[in-house]
Design brief:
26% of the residues lie in helices and 20% in strands. It is of the alpha+beta class and 230 residues long. It has a single domain, classed as Peptide Methionine Sulfoxide Reductase, Chain A. Strands 3, 4, 5, 6, 9, 10 and 11 form a seven-stranded mixed beta sheet that branches. Strands 1-2 form a two-stranded antiparallel ribbon. Helix 5 crosses helix 6. The chain is globular. The N terminus is likely disordered.
Length: 230
């Protein structure tokens, strides 16, 4: 759990505060903005495609370069454990990595981002095979797994690090993303708050966060539907 991870750090007031705040993401039962209970499924999905890590040779702010004909995409939609878990079940995705993007501080750590002072969003970098899945289809999965109208929060998690963002690679992706957002808005009474912005520097998260759901079997970080239905 995130609270366990934070307990491994020095027991400063800040660490204890963050541990308590982040524990909400892994509660057995949470409450959606509508007031309806959300009961995450903790069992592993029945089918999991073989998906690698380190998309685009991701590092600490280093240039991102996809392999061969693959392409890159990046999405922020709340707790990056659940977001990565979802995208690893989308056919055509070949590699994923949680990290931090969209902020102003260099070399942010998880603790830094959790203070909500660096401007970074918890982000999942995706490498995908465009011969198998289109960027538009990836966006469809993105809209399905979270509520894009919630602003600086997602479910029980509050703060700008949980905001909804589509980080684009090039003008073509930006155009497709804007059209996709416009179409998705028709499905919501409230205004979508999702940002569409160019990917600049991506900082891969600490090893503890990589493929967290698969390593631990904890699929409780809430998303809107089961991963095997994507």
């Amino acid at each position: 759990m995130r609270s366990f991870f934070m307990a491994l750090r020095p027991r400063t007031f800040l660490a204890l505060f963050l541990a308590a705040a982040l524990a909400a993401c892994h509660s057995a039962k949470t409450e959606a903005a509508s007031g309806e209970p959300v009961i995450p499924t903790n069992k592993a999905p029945a089918i999991l495609t073989q998906v690698g890590a380190a998309p685009g040779h991701a590092g600490k702010g280093t240039p991102l370069v996809a392999t061969g004909d693959d392409k890159l995409a990046a999405f922020a939609a709340g707790c990056f454990w659940g977001v990565e878990d979802a995208f690893r079940h989308v056919p055509g995705v070949v590699a994923t990595a949680p990290g931090y993007a969209g902020g102003h501080a260099e070399n942010p750590t998880y603790e830094d981002v959790c203070t909500h002072t660096t401007g970074h969003a918890e982000t999942v970098l995706v490498e995908y095979d465009p011969h198998v899945i289109t960027y538009a289809k990836l966006l469809s999965a993105f809209w399905k797994i979270h509520d894009p109208t919630q602003g600086d929060r997602q479910g029980p998690d509050f703060g700008d690090s949980y905001r909804s963002v589509v980080f684009t690679f090039g003008d073509d992706q930006a155009k497709v993303a804007r059209a996709s957002l416009e179409a998705e808005q028709k499905n919501h009474a409230q205004k979508i708050t999702t940002q569409i912005t160019t990917m600049e520097r991506f900082y891969i998260a600490e090893p503890f966060h990589q493929q967290y759901a698969e390593r631990t079997g904890d699929h409780s970080c809430p998303i809107k539907l089961s991963m095997d239905s994507l």
